[in-house]
Amino acid sequence: MPPISTILFDCDNTLVLSEPLAFAACAELSNAIIAAYAPNITHRYAGPELQREFVGRNFRGLIAALEVKHGFTVPTEDLDGWVGKELGTTIGKIKAAAVPCEGVMPVLESLREENMYNLAIVSSSALPRVLASIETTHQDVYFPPSKVFSAASMVPPTSKPDPAVYLYACQQLGVDPSNSVAIEDSKSGATAANRAGIPLIGYVGPYYEDGQEEVDRMVRLLTEECGAIVIMHHWKDFRECLAVVEGKQQGL
């Protein structure tokens, strides 16, 4: 089998620590949606709760999950308005406070200097949000717009765990999914990569803020349920993890 030629990065909480900022915005609007369309539901969400339950989905996918969980429907004619409000609020928070994931910048710089792999971003989030994230953290020098793929901005819009955005990215890049590697931190993202037939590195660095128990839970989930070949705890371990994936590709 040909060696790995392409590295596909998730963005939120993989390249950029944006999820807490985004879910703070999501919580405000999710609670407004529940109040508007399910007034009998008394539960209200805080950002961390939403993040634990729905991390890896874009806001359109989150609304769909809330509809199923709480038994209500947002009218089709209202949906785009809510999605637009969330996008504007989240971008504002990202531009004000987003930072790179710890240790990722030296890895990106070394990959660019070596020029051995195609580098691309494959995200559930809307394209303007992804671009705001990488511009704010100065990662846009590694990912030109042609190498940034957004499930939310596809026609029609999708969200991980649907593998459509990964399959589309591989098609546009001219690469077989099996000759790529994806880096994902969430169940939905990892599931999307796995369904697309892309070898997976599971990343758990951001979960250390929630304690070792949560890290251990995510390690089990990413390996046992999502098929991760190897788990990366910190970006300093990236080369070792990539070598494990490449070794498996070559049957070593």
Automatic annotation (TrEMBL):
<dbReference type="GO" id="GO:0016791">
    <property type="term" value="F:phosphatase activity"/>
</dbReference>
<dbReference type="InterPro" id="IPR006439">
    <property type="entry name" value="HAD-SF_hydro_IA"/>
</dbReference>
<dbReference type="InterPro" id="IPR023198">
    <property type="entry name" value="PGP-like_dom2"/>
</dbReference>
<keyword id="KW-0460">Magnesium</keyword>
<dbReference type="InterPro" id="IPR023214">
    <property type="entry name" value="HAD_sf"/>
</dbReference>
<dbReference type="InterPro" id="IPR036412">
    <property type="entry name" value="HAD-like_sf"/>
</dbReference>
<dbReference type="InterPro" id="IPR051600">
    <property type="entry name" value="Beta-PGM-like"/>
</dbReference>
<keyword id="KW-0479">Metal-binding</keyword>
<keyword id="KW-0119">Carbohydrate metabolism</keyword>
<protein>
    <submittedName>
        <fullName>Uncharacterized protein</fullName>
    </submittedName>
</protein>
<dbReference type="GO" id="GO:0046872">
    <property type="term" value="F:metal ion binding"/>
</dbReference>
<dbReference type="Pfam" id="PF00702">
    <property type="entry name" value="Hydrolase"/>
</dbReference>
